[in-house]
């Protein structure tokens, strides 16, 4: 556990676990496993605090429900990953061709806006090949209820098309400024509100994963739209 952290009244701690496990003695190839998840430890009423922490565990480990505490779930995930690594890559007592696997889960609160708390969850997985896969999820928690904020709560009915157009303009402007050649790879029709967003003083930022709106070369694609531009469509 990391030291207690306080941010705007919200108190948090961080659960951490690190593992480096060679598959066979004398081999450089290993399983690298890291978990670092910030969770609420105080500063909120108990019901919303418990709901937020439960959601963090579910999202971090891709669960429909939480079968135990963060430590219990992370330990089970770790043990299952070790078993899978050994099963997939051979007997660790024998000198066999093996692979390096990496599995990294990281979650952190990234700031508050009004009654909402942003939480950034990243996952990196490497199972051999040319590259690993990184995904980034943004969660927005209502501090009063512990619920996740949705776009349908933020926007009026019929918001999808006009907000999508604002997002496409933002993506186009960013690529034109940084790497115009990559712009032609973006599938603009896929730039739509996707539930993966954060809120802040300057507006809303949406995130699109690798392959979500184009080839892997695009990486993580973001679309930031100001509150001023979004105002006509807000609840």
* Dominant shape: flat
- As residue ranges, the low-confidence spans are 1-6
- Strand-and-helix sequence, N→C? EEEHHEEEHHHEEEH
Mean pLDDT: 91
Please count the beta strands (DSSP E, at least 2 residues each).
9
Terminus-to-terminus distance: 40 Å
Helix content: 25-40%
User: What structural category do the secondary elements indicate?
Assistant: alpha+beta
What share of residues are in beta strands?
A: 25-35%
Topology (elements, then pairings):
Blueprint: E1 5-7, E2 10-22, E3 30-42, H1 46-60, H2 70-89, E4 101-113, E5 116-126, E6 133-142, H3 151-154, H4 160-178, H5 180-183, E7 197-200, E8 203-208, E9 221-225, H6 227-230
Parallel strand pairs: 3-4
Antiparallel strand pairs: 1-2, 2-3, 4-5, 5-6, 7-8, 8-9
Keywords:
alpha+beta; six-stranded mixed beta sheet; three-stranded antiparallel beta sheet; 6 helices
Concise synopsis of the structure shown:
The protein has helices at residues 46-60, 70-89, 151-154, 160-178, 180-183, 227-230; strands at residues 5-7, 10-22, 30-42, 101-113, 116-126, 133-142, 197-200, 203-208, 221-225.
Describe this structure in words.
The chain has 235 residues and is α+β, with helices and mostly antiparallel strands. It has 6 helices and 9 strands. It has helices at residues 46-60, 70-89, 151-154, 160-178, 180-183, 227-230, and strands at residues 5-7, 10-22, 30-42, 101-113, 116-126, 133-142, 197-200, 203-208, 221-225. The strands form 2 sheets. A 6-stranded mixed beta sheet has the order 1-2-3-4-5-6, covered by helices on one side. The chain has a 3-stranded antiparallel beta sheet with strand order 7-8-9. The longest helix is centred in the middle third of the chain and has 20 residues, at 70-89. The radius of gyration is 20 Å and the shape is flat. The two termini are 40 Å apart. Residues 1-6 have low confidence and may be disordered.
């Amino acid at each position: 556990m990391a030291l207690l952290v306080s941010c705007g009244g919200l108190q948090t701690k961080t659960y951490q676990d690190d593992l480096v496990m060679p598959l066979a003695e004398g081999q450089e190839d290993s399983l690298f496993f890291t978990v670092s998840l910030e969770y609420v430890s105080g500063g909120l009423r108990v019901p919303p605090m418990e709901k937020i922490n439960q959601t963090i565990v579910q999202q971090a480990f891709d669960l429909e429900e939480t079968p135990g505490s963060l430590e219990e779930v992370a330990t089970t995930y770790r043990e299952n990953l070790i078993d899978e690594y050994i099963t997939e890559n051979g007997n660790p007592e024998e000198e066999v061709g093996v692979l390096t696997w990496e599995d990294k889960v990281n979650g952190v609160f990234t700031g508050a806006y009004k009654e909402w708390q942003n939480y950034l969850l990243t996952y990196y997985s490497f199972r051999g090949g040319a590259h690993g896969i990184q995904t980034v999820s943004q969660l927005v928690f209502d501090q009063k209820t512990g619920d996740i904020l949705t776009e349908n709560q933020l926007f009026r009915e019929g918001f999808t098309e006009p907000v999508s157009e604002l997002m496409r303009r933002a993506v186009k402007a960013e690529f034109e400024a940084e790497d115009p050649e990559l712009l032609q790879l973006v599938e603009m029709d896929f730039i739509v509100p996707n539930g993966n967003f954060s809120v802040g003083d300057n507006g809303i930022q949406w995130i699109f994963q690798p392959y979500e709106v184009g080839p892997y070369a695009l990486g993580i694609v973001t679309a930031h739209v100001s509150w001023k531009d979004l105002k006509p469509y807000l609840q």
